[in-house]
């Protein structure tokens, strides 16, 4: 990376990005603070096309440390995201990655009524119905879709543990490991109650509609069925393209304090290179951009009363 494109979360942090990446000053930037009272309920429109997704475990190809997070690059083949705010367009998974903080009380990019979570998982998709490549889609206003999932400290997350176990092998910037043990991106999403095998293709709005069925007659755990918020925004890292339809699940997933500590041990310098300033001992933490103004944008929600 040339110095002209350099950015980070410290000296070249979010407040400086705009000098090198003018799009960071746009009016459609992410993340935002979700003011839950401001969200417009839009069950009818959003649930007319159920949000659906499918992620084969074979899609996860390699785990990389770009120096500012961990990221899993995927093989888009066989992956699928459609419905909800995306309507009939088919989006495929390009990669997924994570943001976290130096302590368990911060780390998410989006906040909910001003409250941060310990982390935030992002599954980044591109619109294959309209564009030929990820790069082309990343320049278009409807080119990308990101599923965001909040991380809260709790019990060990089994699927996340597969990633955590590999992280020591990508502990330094630019290190990469091929993924051999299947990691199912779908299993990183909030686990919902109910029948086995339904997890990869769940429609919170449909489930919301299912509430008319008396609770004792079905196996769904309605407590887990909280739906999502959606709005039009941007990539949260430079160049901050304003090309993202955000879908943020209201239901968080639990990861353990230990798992987060493994994330916090990733190094942002190549092996053998010393951190010049000993700042944070050269590890990746607080890799989140603070909330940007929502402005006139509409925040819609699906799946709650
Ligand atoms: Zn992200």
From TrEMBL:
Cellular component terms per the entry's GO annotation: cytoplasm
Where does the Alpha-carbonic anhydrase domain lie?
A: 5-303
Tell me which Gene3D superfamilies the record gives. Answer: Alpha carbonic anhydrase
Q: Which GO terms describe its molecular function?
A: carbonate dehydratase activity; zinc ion binding
Q: What class of enzyme is it?
A: lyase
What transmembrane ranges does the database entry give? none
Its cofactor is:
Zn(2+)
The cross-references to Pfam families, in alphabetical order and at most eight, read: Carb_anhydrase
What are the EC numbers?
4.2.1.1
Q: Which InterPro entries match?
A: CA_dom, CA_dom_sf, Carbonic_anhydrase_a-class, Carbonic_anhydrase_a-class_CS
Q: Which SUPFAM superfamilies match?
A: Carbonic anhydrase
Keywords (A to Z) from UniProt: Lyase, Metal-binding, Zinc
Reactions catalysed according to its record: hydrogencarbonate + H(+) = CO2 + H2O
Q: What does this protein do?
A: Reversible hydration of carbon dioxide.
Provide the family line: Belongs to the alpha-carbonic anhydrase family.
Q: What is this protein called?
A: Carbonic anhydrase
Q: What lineage does the source organism belong to?
A: Eukaryota, Metazoa, Ecdysozoa, Arthropoda, Hexapoda
